[in-house]
Amino acid sequence: MKKIIALLLALVMVFALVACAAKTDAPAEETKTETAATETATEEKTEEATEEPAAETAAPADFKVGFIMLHDENSTYDLNFINAAKEACETLGVEYTLITNVPEGQECYDKAAELADAGCNIIFADSFGHEDYMIQAAKEFPNVQFCHSTGTKAHTEGLSNYHNAFASIYEGRYLAGVAAGMKLNEMIENGEFTADEAKMGYVGAFTYAEVISGYTSFFLGARSVCPTVTMEVTFTGSWYDETAEKEGAQKLIQNGCKLISQHADSFGAPTACETAGVPNVSYNGSTASVGPNTYIISSRIDWAPYYIYAIKACMNGEAIDTDWTGTLATGSVVLSELNEKVAAAGTQEALDQVKAELEAGTRHVFDITTFTVEGKQLDSYMADVDTDPDYTPDTEAIKDGYFAESSDRSAPYFNLYIDGITLLDQAF
Fold it and tell me: Considering the entire predicted model, what is its pTM?
């Protein structure tokens, strides 16, 4: 009888524990998916730690990380950040909260304040227009670290808890341009059009320096292997507008563009290319799922190295760089797997060679001998690095024969309109 009673008591205890566990795992409504994933990852890390030596940096039990994203997983731009955030936090075994669809307005401050009040030690935001609101939050919460990707003001604000980060993505775009140029050469050799008809199209969001630097580096990469290429650029006035991006690509194709690339975040342009049978070079991740017969390659920033660096620094009480720039060498600038089905023969070998030259410093994306402005080669150019409301030029950008992009500030400041590129509109 005693054995039966003991058994019954044991079963009651098991059911009670299961019920408690189920209640504990229930996440906050706003971020339940991300929080649940984090808890699971943290538990897995703990289990592994019992079998292996402790990691160099162990997260304090109460350490929390917050992320603010402009859009959600439907945006290639934000998906790239989301994947990096999850990878970094799971690698370090830290708890995190991820908030998506936060506009570039006062709501960004509100969410940053909510995360700080919830105990987050470090908070990241991913869009250019979030910056002023992140600065506002940094002033309000001096004991919390705020890190903002693509921003420009950290080095002039003078806040010990506010930081900017970017990467030399112009090198990635240049490499993607090399792949585009080789595809154009193949199409010329196949008799699909003549060398003087080699025209590319580019769908951009805004006429910001970041976008100008991006489409220019892409163009220069293409022209390094296809010297007759020209390019037309159209703008949508939005980082994410699938209809506008699709219509922009269609307009460029109708104008005779033989290959399309973009600095915009939806599948609009790649979808238009697949429908029209026009090769496409995407951004922030592979679009092979919607363009299996036209997608060539994509360049992107891998934000995981920065997230890991900044989170570890925060955990250890170490200073975070005011203005951090990731590179090819840090693994921050990467290319997606080449779509051999669409890419020209020999493309991977060419990419490997050019990448090695960029890393060695024997090739520079903005070499002043490779482009002109209004028919003239530059030997001097004052760039707006210390951003002010009037965008006053303040820093000599031509150094050692090339425009030294992202050397005086992580965010791009190349804003030159070079010959060979035609802007169809500049409303944005």
Answer: 0.85
